[in-house]
């Protein structure tokens, strides 16, 4: 049986158990996750963190491996090997990453045993001798020459070429399987992304490549498929006849925090819109896949993207934050005040863009994507706004229904709807059907996106990873506008740190038919 076919039914086991607490999850999970078949090629797994000295490794990769280890979810015989240029020891890795582990004093013994499974090799990314030394080290681990190998590329894109080449030439397991996890950015435009894809696919097969978009690992993003395809109530309404617009939002309440140098090369469209928001849009817009098999799901996502014409300048509003002179601390600093940002940069830190999916289901429905830094709140959500009720008998008192899938923080699904005002009244009033996770699933520990995704790689499930043809289509949609903005040096609109972004964004949304009434008031039941 192929890898995918053997693994995906078991992934539903992960989903079934995420409502259990961490400790409840331990023990039962590993057996459900892995079968003998998974270990046919090799019993031992080696997870190699390339770029082990870096920020991502310290804040995300090592902590995630620790959580999986402490929950007993990694295959029993797993080793972790760090590789980077800095001359470090396991002790150094431990020192820099342990504060992100959220471990308690009760974990002391387990932490020691986790770090006993760790080792570190220092070397140069472009040097084959360094990779030969890495391979020798991998072989020297118990059963190392027969192990399955997972390579996590936590390195800047400038070294992807060398690293992927050197892994292929010197570090591949000849007995077990090999999987390579690649972090975004996957290129800067269609051409650079194609070049990178061609390079990587000349070295590895698609089923060995795991392109991470960590939004695909988030609870509520994964829930989109279940809400849509496991319920009868939404299906008949999920189309242009009933839905007026779809809004996909990403907001962060902080600016570049001194890391503007990196951000400035990319800007908000490449950083968030072209990947995180577009992936969510695909899950909202796609047709029902034939099955939950990875390629069936990804086939449907690609079909959606193929129906999306290139983004045009009249369908976008760009912003760049300026300091708020009466704000506190960082809020006083505008994007251009960050010393790591080039003077006079036109890089947008905010964007609202309208995309259309030109197929029978969605023709004419605006998909409004909004993302920005230094805004008034942290929020990621998907909002479907329904059309007006036809043949109104309530003298214009009805407000549009909305279905909101709140991705973060405070995961929730809620439907804004009209109900009879309770009591001696007969007029409609705005209310909601509210599935707030914190109320419905008390004491639930939702796994972090990286936990799910790294576990998926161990299990060989590619459903929540980006396939090369998806990537190509995503860049096709955004590359022309990105080039135009850069060539014509189009200046973004200023917006104040801590605001909702430029007012022109609301105007654009209104022009394509999104209606904001400003009358809805939610009463949090926890605060009643
Ligand atoms: P609102 O009607 O307040 O907002 C609807 C949308 O309008 C939002 O997307 C908002 O976007 C946008 N908007 C806000 N101000 C303007 C404006 N001046 N012009 C144009 N658009 C605007 O309803 P919400 O659904 O947002 O609910 C209100 C609050 O109640 C939220 O904080 C929500 O999370 C909370 N709530 C929570 C629930 C739960 O957790 N279970 C259930 C129901 C509600 P923008 O992001 O730009 O502000
Ligand atoms: C990353 C972006 O992909 O996502 C960052 O590069 C952004 O700029 C981050 O801050 C947001 O992730 P999350 O999970 O905190 O919403």
Automatic annotation (TrEMBL):
Record's subcellular location: Cytoplasm, Cytosol
GO molecular function, a single term: NADP binding
Domain of life: Eukaryota
Reactions performed catalytically: D-glucose 6-phosphate + NADP(+) = 6-phospho-D-glucono-1,5-lactone + NADPH + H(+)
GO cellular component: cytosol
Record-linked PROSITE patterns: G6P_DEHYDROGENASE
Domain Glucose-6-phosphate dehydrogenase C-terminal: 225-516
Protein keywords: Carbohydrate metabolism, Cytoplasm, Glucose metabolism, NADP, Oxidoreductase
UniProt keyword Cytoplasm present: yes
Protein family: Belongs to the glucose-6-phosphate dehydrogenase family.
Identification of the protein by name: Glucose-6-phosphate 1-dehydrogenase
Record organism: Pyxicephalus adspersus (African bullfrog)
